[in-house]
User: Fold this.
Amino acid sequence: MKTNLSLILALILLLAMTPACLAEEAYSADSDPLLQGVIDRAQAFSENHLGYPVNDDIELKEFYEWYLSNDIDRVMMNNAGDPNDITANHGALEVENEVLRFFAPYYGFEPDEAWGLISASGTDGNDHGIYFGRHYLEDVTGMKPILYVSTESHYSNMRLAELQQLEVRLIDTDEMGAMIPDSFRTALDPERPALVVFSMGTTFKGGIDDQQAINAILDEVAPPAVYRHVDAALFGGYLPFSEYADKVDRRVLGFDSIAISGHKFFGIDDPCGLFFTSKEVMAHQNPYDISYLEGSMPMINCSRSATNPLKFYWIARHKGAEGFKAMADKMFEVTAYLKEKLDEIGWSYWISDPCSTTVFFSRPDEATMQKYFLAPDYDERFGGELAHVIVMPNVGKDLIDRFVADLQTQQTTLEPAA
Assistant:
């Protein structure tokens, strides 16, 4: 009996002590190893990365201070609705509309004729281009179109065509990643509407499809109807503010829609983008009038970020056209410097077009690949294994000097392919 009583008393004492002695410590983000890993990777990436189209000159600290000081972080805002036809406003649609009106002319759209949105990403912009193109062509011809896209275009275009159940014809590219016009002519069906996706800067080589040459073939073959979408994720950010602005101007090239990323050149810290088409194209879409939104929802996404439009607006107001031009000028200056330094050490490299800041070259060793976050590729026409540098606004000559010095220590020189 004494033993049982002693055991019972011990258990009572243990239970009484549990909250103080056995409770977990209060959570601290500063001691969280997973979050620390994110910090470490972000710092290393920011200091050295050269292989991906990310602008790490992100100037949003004052934006977040404004955001927090006004308690906007306590409100869930949703840009549910058409920013081009604002009725009920659940978020920051009027800010989104202002951003669209600012950027539309840089792509050859008059603000009053343009329809646009701030997309969730470059892929989302391409999705809208293909979706609107399909419905436009079906509406004017009664036939489902064929999608034509190059073999080196961004992989999302093929996946989006699969999701939208479109027949796809892949067009061969030349060694610089551009669609071959003669291959396009061979693939083009004169009896079916044509939905053409042009690459304005392919992912690895920065290849640029010759829209004027393809347009001439379309005029000659004359399929029942044509819709032209431009995937200009990176190049569409800086080209309008450079001497090469005509390459993304619909008044020159006649495209029907264009998608540009916001998290590349423009320096937004979340994936987002710009998408533009014309109101004439939108007249052939289902507007999906939604009673409880008191307006139409022609876009694919129902709920959309209201924060990214605020960031786009903030950056556009602080930078303006002159600020974006200065960023583009720096990219071209540092690209020329990189080419000069690679020439000095005899390291083989190639660039697809004078308007490109993507330089691809014979692949260095794995340590260099990892240190500078370089993206790999393979093409026998250039000797096999390749890597590339994408010069972004945050890339300075000091980083190029460090990178080229590491290449030089390898003492590897490969000649360009004939």
Q: What stands out?
A: The chain has two domains: 46-58+321-410, 61-317. Residues 307-345 form the longest helix (39 residues).
